[in-house]
Amino acid sequence: MRVAIATGEYHLGGETFINRHIEHLFGGNTVVVCGRFRGDNPYGKPYFVRRDGLSSRDMMVAPWWLLRNRMRHGTSRLPFGEAKDALVKFLKDERVDVVLAEFGTQALALAPLANRLEIPIFTYFRGTDASKAIRTERMRSAYRKMMPRLAGVFSVSRFLLENLDRHGISHPNSTVIPSGVDIRRFAPQAKVPLSFLAVGRFVEKKAPLTTLRAFAKATQDLPDARLDFIGDGPLLEPARALAETLGVAKKLRFHGAQPHHTVRDRLMSTQYFLQHSVTARDGNTEGLPTAIQEAMACGCITVSTRHAGIPEAIDEGETGFLVDEHDEAGFTRAISQAIAVPDPLAMSMQARKVAEERFDNHVLLKILERHIQGTLTIPPGNYFISKTRAPA
By the 8 A CB rule, do 302 and 294 touch? Predict the structure, then answer.
């Protein structure tokens, strides 16, 4: 089975879940349809760039097509004119059997065309596309119009499906399949006592300043405690300044953005993983953070928040500790609880065990393949009324 993986940008090293599909789904029998090409094609895949400039002819008819698509489909994202013809040719020449749009916003752009070509199309909701993106009625309406065009819907967490459903956006063939982690590469090593790690962009949704303040308070009597931050973003410099103000700069190391293998190496020997995820003011949320799944696979004791799909990963008191969003005092207490666990090795081993059971990406990839194959046994046109679920 030949699959077209539709994504916003190709190739992004941080999008490990999408890259895994591109490299391995159905034995790697894939092509890529992207909005932008970043100049790197590490998997040697045929690819098509949807936004690779408009011809002079398309520029002339663009206003009409944009208005038409907005009125008919609720979105102006759809390809049109010569660009559309080129995409049709690419899909036909590559003998594409199915499309997997890696975000709901990508499915908006491709679902009508896939229907016209009688190519089944699925989408995968991952976070922003099922939170921030649906704050406007225009986008919610576009999603509602899109749903009957899809063969099925995947999501990294139950939370995202429920969030969509609250706005009347649902599909009966919906399945939760987390992004997962390579548990063979992410595995525990000897833990450095009182080592802490936070990974992610220095942005509002990750609340790095809350993490920093809570760590400082929880470890004020523990001079050997160390917190490593990996990531960059607009709140990085404020975080550095805050560390100086709180007098804990010597306990912190800011590494900036790092390649994925560096994150893995650090996780393997880290004892505690911190992630104070919150809903941003623009409505942006997590799905189910890959970093938490990777931390669990490495046997880290996680301290995080009851946010999005995180409670679907962390069993409170067994593999980690959770607090409400923005509860800095509670986060401080949770870090202290983690430090005071009577048998940290047992909790570490339990985190690893849960990761093996729930987040083995090899197993999850096979579940995804079986679900797609199972759906395609349904006569075309009946996908939306199907009650099919992914095999256990």
Answer: no
Listed in order, the ranges of the chain carrying CATH 3.40.50.2000 are 3-180+361-385, 195-358
Domain 3-180+361-385 - what CATH class? Answer: alpha beta
The 10 Å Cβ neighbour count of residue 28 is: 13
Say how far apart CA 361 and CA 345 lie, in whole Å. 24
Q: What's the token pair of residue 350?
A: 């339990």
Residues 122-162: tens digit of each pLDDT: 999 999 999 999 999 999 999 999 999 999 999 999 999 99
Q: 85, 160, 155: which is closest to 130 by C-alpha?
A: 160
* Inter-residue contact 228 to 255 (CB < 8 Å): yes
Block residue for tokens 């962009």: 201
Please state which CATH number belongs to domain 195-358. Answer: 3.40.50.2000
Tokens 């059997």 found at: 97
Looking at residue 321, what DSSP letter applies? E
